[in-house]
Specification:
Helix 2 crosses helix 3. This protein has one domain: Up-down Bundle (Growth Hormone, Chain: A). The protein is globular and about 55 Å long. By secondary structure, it is an all-alpha fold.
């Protein structure tokens, strides 16, 4: 029998021998702390080495990679993360999150430095796997550490601000890379130039590790233990958890199609700098999350999330009917506004339906959905383009996927209302 996913997060009694849920007392009382700022700074630096791959499909085309292989090579990095994350998440604790990040950064740096020297399918596949493994370890450690230092009454605001650190690289790196490309031999060298960004991230890990270990020493031993398999199975049987994971998968799959294929569409309508779409979208996203972050905790989360998914599902297919570059930038602002609401609300809803001991694990289930979405979106988009599909078909499929996310969230809204009573 599955546990009732109430906002209080109460679990049914666990089998004999399982570690009972224990909460730390007191927990973090303020949002802005060294730990939170350090995690945000590391996130910005880490996501810079992903944001630069907005043009990877074009790069594969320029290298002469067959059309049938471009989608799989795009998807191989997130596919690696998808396969590795369930195993990694099972072993993540507060005490080893920084260690995860340290190893992951080393692997990602090696992958970035390898791109200029890989020009055939086999070598590209190997580098994408290495990159995926490194990046998933960084993000797994980041999420685990973040969860420990967010005050309970500022979860949505905290996730909103943290997600800004993911967006900043997507706002600045595409136009920066576009300006840099005329001075480089190819995109591969732009990827390699992102490797030095890992150095300041490495330097932040030392003080963050010391503070995290000191905080962990104040926690009950039960809170530092890995979740038992019985708890994992209960989480996977929870309707709220499963539906939110599915909604996040559909959200990211739809977004991944826009992210990887918008450049070609922007070029086709005469955009001078196709990276500006991401600058405008993410600028709107960042402004809303920073300026309205405190309001997120006051929204009817389930209802707001469902309406936002519906709006995004209707907006994305309209991209294909834009004929002028400035019109696309206006559409980008609306797109960024929708993305500003969806991601922090999904994370906050997950916390609301999760027992305290399972919040770190369930947060990584959402990241598992991110990996799956970034695999499925480019793979599907690549197949559509390889079959000579139009951008109208591509964006219509993306919008339809976003509507599936809205369907998933509708029952979650009811669960949250019942838990609040």
């Amino acid at each position: 029998m599955s546990p009732t996913p109430l906002a209080s997060g109460a679990l049914q009694p666990l089998p004999s021998g399982a570690i009972p849920p224990v909460q730390a007392d007191p927990g973090p009382q303020r949002l802005v702390s060294f730990e939170f700022v350090a995690v945000c700074a590391i996130s910005i630096l880490a996501f810079c080495n992903i944001a630069i791959f907005y043009g990877f499909y074009s790069y594969l085309t320029e290298m002469g990679i067959p059309a049938g292989w471009r989608g799989p090579l795009l998807s191989l990095e997130p596919l690696t993360a998808l396969v590795a994350r369930p195993f990694l998440g099972r072993y993540l604790t507060l005490g080893n999150g920084v260690r995860f990040m340290r190893v992951g950064m080393a692997l990602a740096t090696c992958a970035l430095l390898s791109y200029p020297f890989t020009h055939n399918i086999a070598l590209l596949a190997a580098v994408r796997v290495l990159h995926g493994l490194g990046f998933v370890m960084v993000v797994t450690g980041l999420m685990g550490t973040l969860m420990a230092f967010l005050p309970k009454d500022k979860m949505a605001q905290g996730f909103g601000l943290f997600s800004v650190t993911i967006l900043v690289p997507y706002a600045i790196m595409p136009p920066f890379v576009e300006a840099l490309l005329p001075h480089l031999a190819n995109h591969g060298w732009a990827y390699a130039l992102a490797a030095p960004l890992m150095l300041p991230a490495f330097l932040l890990l030392a003080p963050l590790g010391r503070r995290t270990r000191a905080f962990a020493a104040t926690q009950p031993a039960a809170n530092l233990a890995r979740p038992g398999w019985d708890e994992v199975r209960q989480a996977l049987r929870s309707a709220g958890v499963v539906l939110l994971v599915a909604a996040n998968f559909f959200l990211v799959a739809a977004h991944a199609i826009v992210f990887f294929f918008m450049r070609d569409f922007a070029v086709s309508i005469g955009a001078a700098n196709p990276g500006e779409f991401f600058t405008f979208a993410n600028s709107a996203n960042i402004i809303l999350r920073v300026g309205g972050g405190r309001l997120l905790d006051k929204l009817n989360m389930g209802r707001a999330l469902q309406l936002t998914f519906l709006g995004m599902g209707l907006l994305i297919p309209l991209f294909a009917y834009v004929s002028l570059p400035w019109m696309l930038l206006v559409a980008a602002v609306f797109y960024g506004t929708g993305m500003a609401l969806t991601m922090p609300l999904v994370n906050t809803c997950m916390i609301a339906v999760s027992p305290p001991r399972m919040r770190m694990y369930n947060a990584n289930l959402l990241m598992l959905a991110v990996d799956a979405g970034f695999f499925a979106g480019p793979f599907l988009g690549g197949a559509i383009m390889a079959a000579d599909g139009s951008h109208a078909v591509l964006f219509s499929v993306s919008g339809g996927i976003m509507l599936l996310a809205a369907l998933c969230v509708r029952p979650v809204a009811r669960i949250l209302r019942q838990g609040a009573k």
